[in-house]
Design a protein that fits this description.
About 30% of the residues lie in helices and about 30% in strands. The radius of gyration is 17 Å and the shape is globular. The chain has one domain: Aminopeptidase (3-Layer(aba) Sandwich), CATH 3.40.630.30. Strand 6 and strand 7 form a beta hairpin. Helix 1 crosses helix 2. The chain has a 7-stranded mixed β-sheet with strand order 1-2-3-4-5-7-6, sandwiched between helices. The model has no long low-confidence stretch (mean pLDDT about 85). The chain is built from 5 helices and 7 strands; from the N terminus they run βααββαβαβαββ. The N and C termini lie far apart (about 40 Å). The protein is of the alpha+beta class.
Length: about 180
């Protein structure tokens, strides 16, 4: 029987973050969350998110509350270079932050931000974003960015120090907004 969770307090919940590589028993749950949230983009590959999360497991963190997985995030180090990377979204980030002397920078790319539906409205999103910012600091990133497919989330990211810097396209099909997060 699956253990369920309920929160009856106004206190800020304490989350424990565990790398997916250290708790692979939650890979199926993480893949299910990803498929539920973004599966419509990969209908041709039922296992897309499972495979991708497996490959990224060193960068994916499962948020645990009272021993149960309640969310996840990934922070992936990417180098942004004005010379090498012609991807429009990366170019916009570099153009915004670069100087004549600096045309390349370390980006902490935030991906797979998800909170289980049963755990929403508990204040977990802010805790997850703070964890992401801490990870960006630990990797000595110069910038942190993410793409959102759901523009209704932009207000939340703005309250957390984000700013929309350009529009992009995921898989050349789905419009996204590229957000730079201050950390």
């Amino acid at each position: 029987m699956k253990k369920d969770f309920t929160l009856f307090t106004s206190a800020r919940p304490e989350l424990k973050f565990v790398r997916l590589s250290e708790c692979k028993e939650h890979l199926d749950t993480a893949a299910m969350w990803a498929k539920n949230a973004w599966g419509y983009m990969h209908l041709d590959d039922e296992q897309f998110h499972y495979k991708q999360l497996q490959e990224l497991c060193e960068h994916v963190y499962i948020a645990m509350y009272d021993g149960l997985p309640v969310g996840m995030l990934a922070v992936i180090e990417k180098t942004l270079s004005l010379e090498e990377n012609r991807e429009e979204s990366s170019e916009k980030i570099v153009e915004e932050l670069s100087t004549p002397e600096i045309t390349e920078m370390k980006n902490a790319y935030l991906d797979y931000v998800y909170i289980d539906e049963r755990a929403r409205s508990m204040g977990l999103a802010g805790i997850i974003i703070e964890k992401a910012k801490n990870l960006a600091r630990e990797m000595n990133a110069e910038v942190m960015s993410l793409e959102t497919l759901n523009s209704t989330l932009n207000g939340f990211y703005k309250r957390k120090g984000g700013r929309v810097i350009c529009e992009g396209r995921y898989n050349d099909s789905y419009p996204t907004e590229i957000i730079r997060l201050k950390f």
